[in-house]
Amino acid sequence: MNPLLSRLQPYPFERLKQLFAGITPNPAYRPISLGIGEPRHPTPAFIKHALAAAMDTPGSDLAGYPQTLGSPELRAACAAWMQRRYGLAVDAATQVLPVNGSREALFAFAQTVIDPTRPAVVVCPNPFYQIYEGAALLAGADAYFAATDPARNFAVDWDGVPESTWAKTQLVYVCSPGNPTGAVMPLEEWRKLFALQDRHGFVIASDECYSEIYFRDEPPLGGLEAAAKLGRAGFPGLVAFTSLSKRSNVPGMRSGFVAGDAALIKQFLLYRTYHGSAMNPVVQAASTAAWNDEGHVVENRNLYRRKFAEVTPLLEGVLDIRLPDAGFYLWAGVRGSDTTFARDLRAQYNVTVLPGSYLAREAGGGNPGTGRVRMALVADTAECLEAAQRIVQFVQNRS
Ligand SMILES: Cc1ncc(COP(=O)(O)O)c(C=O)c1O
């Protein structure tokens, strides 16, 4: 067996299962989960119709093998969206590649980029999305977890990464808007990271799958947008990962795309051709329709905005919480052990939240998720409100 498999850490939800083993939740309450970050707003009907119609359309039906590069229509739709959303002119032929959801792409990208014959470090934010760590380890690299600063809206402390680590760094994952913090990386942070990139020659993978769910007037800055603003023509060493899962409520469709540095995209396409990661043609057709429509995205964002506007004030009184920049999580300080909080809440009120320490690693003398829990406000507003009311009671009763 590949010995690197043994370096993989248990996924946060496996750890949650263990934490809850032996608990009998209070039967007076029906279960509510704020645990998993899976979109639960309905899939727009026009996307389902596009999927069904493609089945009977020669060229996009199931009768042929799809190309890894994707259809020209899909790549054009992705490029047009980049233009509308970020004002960027990306070349649909060389700077865009469809992927089967951003998760597989974030993983596969490390396998494409990392040279394991040299010392290899992958820098991830801490807390982070666990795929980054697994991708680094299976590529034969070590993961370095860079601290984030709660006092600076959870900005990654790039200055705190030692020079000796940067010297070995081949890949940096950026997660903006962040999971679990919801923080958007501002232009000045990008400027700093690009300066480090110029000095040390690493590649940047910018994970932006929450970019369309935001609570401020201004939409989140994208990595490629930041590069363009800072005069980095051609996005050297930078690839952004975008997804329909959250934007269009189609997590089951497995559809996203990457865009950026044409030289990296070319090598990624080569890797993906061997890996066999072409997108199903029917999914390509439905994805084209989804990227070409913005109305459903505005509606979806408004749903989240109304939900967060109702739920956040309720919890603000009892937890260290505030409206995030973007995303669909509350990253709540619980004043005490996050695992005890999650266990007791489940036992007494049948509400599931994810302990923050499961989403981060011990680094620099502590685990930055300790004392926090992640709540995914993915269910409808009534259910999230009921969960919040139970949490308020729970906190008031325990203090
Ligand atoms: C930070 C982050 N990146 C990527 C993904 C993967 O999303 P998908 O594969 O559905 O595009 C998720 C999913 O929850 C996520 O939270």
Instruction: Report mean pLDDT, rounded to a whole number.
Output: 97
Q: Walk across the major sheet and give the strand order.
A: 2-9-8-7-6-3-4-5
Please state roughly what percent of the residues sit in beta strands, choosing from under 5%, 5-15%, 15-25%, 25-35%, 35-45% or over 45%. 5-15%
The 3D shape can be described as globular
C-alpha termini separation:
50 Å
> SS-based structural class?
alpha/beta
Give the biggest sheet: 8 strands, mixed
Total of DSSP H or I helical runs spanning 4+ residues: 14
Q: Which kinds of small molecule does this entry bind, naming each only once?
A: pyridoxal-5'-phosphate
Number of strands: 13
| Rg on CA atoms, Å | 21 Å
Element string (H = helix, E = strand): HEHHEHEHEEHEHEHEHEHHHEHEEEH
**Helix coverage percent of residues?**
40-55%
Residue windows where pLDDT falls under 50 for at least 5 positions:
none
